[in-house]
Amino acid sequence: MSASGGTKAIVAALAANLAIAASKFVAFAFSGSSSMLAEGVHSLADSGNQALLLVGGKKAQREATPQHPFGYGRERYIYAFLVSIILFSVGGMFALYEGYEKIKHPHEIEHWYWPVGVLVFAIIAEAFSFRTAIKESNVLRGQKSWTEFIRHAKAPELPVVLLEDFGALVGLVLALGGVGLALITGDGVWDGIGTVCIGILLVLIAVVLAVETKSLLLGEAAGVEEVTKIEAAIVDGDTVPRIIHMRTLHLGPEELLVAAKIAVRHEDTAAEVATAINAAEARIREAVPIARVIYLEPDIYSEAEAAKGADREATPGGPAQHSTDH
User: Fold this and answer.
1) Measured between alpha carbons, how far is 243 from 241 in angstroms, rounded to an integer?
2) Contact between 102 and 192 (Cβ < 8 Å)
3) How high is the mean pLDDT in each 10-residue block of the chain (326 residues)?
């Protein structure tokens, strides 16, 4: 996995979650707190999720084959989508069920110092993991807000780890609140309410992850900045005077497909057209290094044909958002 895949953040989160999960299960065994059990399952699910992200990154590095000529870059999207499903089912739904049972059949928390101590330890460990994820994300985030970064990031690992760590920190605070209120009031219902809140939080985060990774699986175009650079690189004003239409598609987080119909001069020879295409491809790769698969089709620009609009059969989906059709 490339550095932008956030391997450091994933490993930090995995180490933190394994330690936290073990401590939470110990605390549950001594205290009987449903919040502790829900949080333990949550941390265990998170550990499995991070392992899946590492596996996806490894599988994505496989070389292209005749059956998969564009490689396996989208493996990372598939495994990120599996993470959202696991977070929803194992983490969120289990917490909701456990919270409902605790509210229905409350019991007093025993050995209160176990859950409180573990929660304090877990908050410190998760804060360290979250700090690492933020530091790794800031390298790629630039001037984007956190919402924009999560919504538009092409590498799924960092948004997944960020949301998982954020959810874990908020969940720990909710668990601490539920345990604290249960101890203060002597009513175990508060422990169940805290567990239900954790479940709702995990379900919401899982839905956000599922929506974003689904979009990546369907195939997203390059970002506005990359599209602008590609367009500027293709058109040199001489051998390639304009772009007739263009499509981009992420084959993986760090691999971009560019397909464009470009205008060439009608008096150019075949050799001159081939030279112009090769030069344009070189300019694209220099401007946007992740543009690794490039197909440029030469054509003679026609004002009359352009006035008819894009051919939807020839260019599926109609005009691209950043098309330079005229």
Assistant:
1) 7
2) yes
3) 60 84 85 78 81 86 85 86 81 83 80 82 86 85 84 83 86 86 86 87 87 86 91 89 90 90 88 92 94 91 64 52 43
